[in-house]
């Protein structure tokens, strides 16, 4: 019976630790417009990733890396030699690292409007992804109730066996 309690304690502890690790992740929004890759890096609490390392390379050419840093607001702008399929990664404090493929934005619209609009849309999407919904809360409560139900089942089974032996 003690092993069941230990298992449940470890399971709950694992769930809590996994949630804590997810709570402070790093995100990056980037785009290639002409020969400039621009974007922003930020943490899940929407604080900017200040003065973090940004690395960019063409897919399949990891040796030819171009690097830069984010500013105080987490924004970066790095010139690249040619258009192509780029991979961008940001390395932040405490081992945070995020990597993404850089999408190409067409040059038909005005550059400042499309850049800021694209970045804002991506940030809004990331905020929605990280939002806690009622279904997630109810699902967590359901898991907890289920775990206690399993414990109650095994305790009742054990008590029934003891009562049968005593009779």
TrEMBL record:
Residue spans crossing the bilayer: 132-154
Keyword annotations: Membrane, Signal, Transmembrane, Transmembrane helix
Source superkingdom: Bacteria
Signal sequence, renumbered to the chain: 1-23
Entry keyword Transmembrane: yes
Name of this protein: DUF4198 domain-containing protein
Organism: Morganella psychrotolerans
Lineage, opening ranks: Bacteria, Pseudomonadati, Pseudomonadota, Gammaproteobacteria, Enterobacterales
């Amino acid at each position: 019976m003690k092993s069941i309690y230990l298992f449940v304690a470890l399971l709950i502890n694992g769930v809590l630790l996994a949630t804590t690790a997810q709570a402070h992740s790093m995100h990056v929004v980037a785009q290639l417009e002409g020969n400039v890759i621009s974007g922003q890096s930020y943490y899940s609490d929407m604080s900017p990733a200040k003065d973090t390392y940004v690395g960019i390379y063409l897919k399949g050419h990891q040796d030819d890396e171009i690097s830069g840093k984010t500013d105080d607001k987490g924004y970066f702008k790095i010139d690249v030699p040619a258009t192509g399929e780029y991979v961008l990664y940001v390395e932040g404090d405490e081992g945070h690292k995020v990597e993404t493929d850089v999408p190409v934005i067409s040059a038909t619209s005005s550059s400042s409007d499309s850049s800021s609009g694209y970045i804002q849309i991506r940030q809004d999407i990331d905020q929605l992804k990280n939002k806690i919904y009622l279904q997630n809360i109810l699902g967590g409560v359901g898991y907890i109730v289920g775990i206690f139900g399993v414990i109650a089942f095994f305790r009742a089974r054990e008590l029934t066996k003891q009562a049968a032996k005593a009779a």
